[in-house]
Amino acid sequence: MSDCIFCKIVAGDIPAKKIYEDEQVLAFHDINPVSPVHFLVIPKLHIPSMAELQPEHEAVMGKVMTAASRIARELRCTDGFRTIVNTGRVGRQEVYHLHVHVVGGPDVLPAMLKR
Ligand code: 5GP
Ligand code: ZN
């Protein structure tokens, strides 16, 4: 998807603070963090949102979730973290490339609850 900002990050066309990358998954810090730890994990494949998930995406989405867990551990989210997937208009999704937010750190988690 040539007009998708996260596809451009995958392609290296725009910069991002990458945390982890393999053939199918990319994790990077959110450009506008709401908490000391706020990163995004995406499938490299352009899937617009959680509403478009199909059975053939099960393997890559498993990898997205395991990467999120492992990175949260590595970033010392020992007291837990919030995992958010905004979907579509009702979910107030802003970037239409499926992504999992991982938000950790003390006492600021309500900031992710959109109004
Ligand atoms: P959502 O679509 O779930 O509402 O949120 C999209 C998230 O992507 C926001 O938290 C926003 O800060 C982040 N974001 C948007 N554009 C960029 C970008 O170019 N780079 C990075 N690292 N994050 C971005
Ligand atoms: Zn995309």
Please give a handful of descriptors for the protein shown.
115 residues; five-stranded antiparallel sheet; 5 strands; binds guanosine-5'-monophosphate; binds zinc ion
What does it look like?
This protein has 115 residues and is of the alpha+beta class. Helix content is 21%, strand content 21%. The chain has two helices and five strands; from the N terminus they run αβββαββ. A hairpin with a 3-residue loop joins strand 1 and strand 2. It starts with a helix and ends in an 11-residue tail after the last strand.
Sheet-strand content, in percent, reads 15-25%
How many helical elements?
2
Largest sheet: 5 strands, antiparallel
Any idea what the shape is? globular
* Radius of gyration computed on alpha carbons: 14 Å
Bound molecules: guanosine-5'-monophosphate, zinc ion
What is the share of helical residues? Answer: 10-25%
Strand arrangement, largest sheet?
A: 1-2-3-5-4
Order of helices and strands: HEEEHEE
Could you tell me how far the N terminus lies from the C terminus, measured between alpha carbons in angstroms?
A: 30 Å
Topology, number of strands: 5
Helical/strand content category: alpha+beta
Give the mean pLDDT: 93
Q: Give start-end ranges of low-pLDDT stretches.
A: none
